[in-house]
Specification:
Blueprint (H helix, E strand, L loop, with lengths): L28 H13 L6 H14 L13 H11 L6 H7 L33 H6 L10
């Protein structure tokens, strides 16, 4: 799957054709559209017609002829759409945590927890451990539970 071409603003090749030269795109418009739809479904305002329109605009831009209607727009649909749209953009872990699907055993995928069919993970994996160097440098820090 080709995700980025690493071309400069003038169209010439970037410094490395294996990785993009930019460190991380902060927020793409597609991400903002999906955030709007999720916020609407979680009671954050906006309109269902705008939310559906934003999702369909993304699908049209991606040459996906399968537009959705308001009945199709659910939180599970948004989570799946984020996986499709933001593939390889380092959003998935935080999305799964926000949807309460990263830990526990209700939502498994191949090799989750190093099990071929996926296994349940304890909830302390929702946060990272604090590096020992940081704890050593600041005695006011305490390690996150479970580490």
């Amino acid at each position: 799957m080709e995700k980025y071409s690493n071309a400069t603003s003038t169209g010439s090749a970037g410094a490395d054709q294996t990785f993009v030269d930019t460190d991380f795109p902060l927020f793409r418009l597609a991400d903002v559209y999906l955030m709007y739809a999720e916020a609407h479904l979680r009671g954050g305002g906006g309109t269902i017609s705008d939310a559906v329109g934003y999702v369909n605009a993304l699908r049209t831009r991606a040459h996906n002829p399968n537009t959705i209607s308001s009945g199709d727009l659910t939180l599970d649909f948004i989570l799946d759409e984020r996986a499709r749209e933001l593939h390889w953009e380092a959003h998935r872990r935080q999305d799964l945590i926000r949807y309460n699907k990263f830990t526990g055993g209700n939502y498994n995928w191949a090799w989750k927890g190093n099990g071929s069919n996926g296994i349940s993970l304890p909830s302390h994996f929702n946060v990272y451990p604090i590096p020992t160097g940081s704890i050593a440098a600041n005695p006011n820090l305490t390690q996150n539970t479970g580490y």
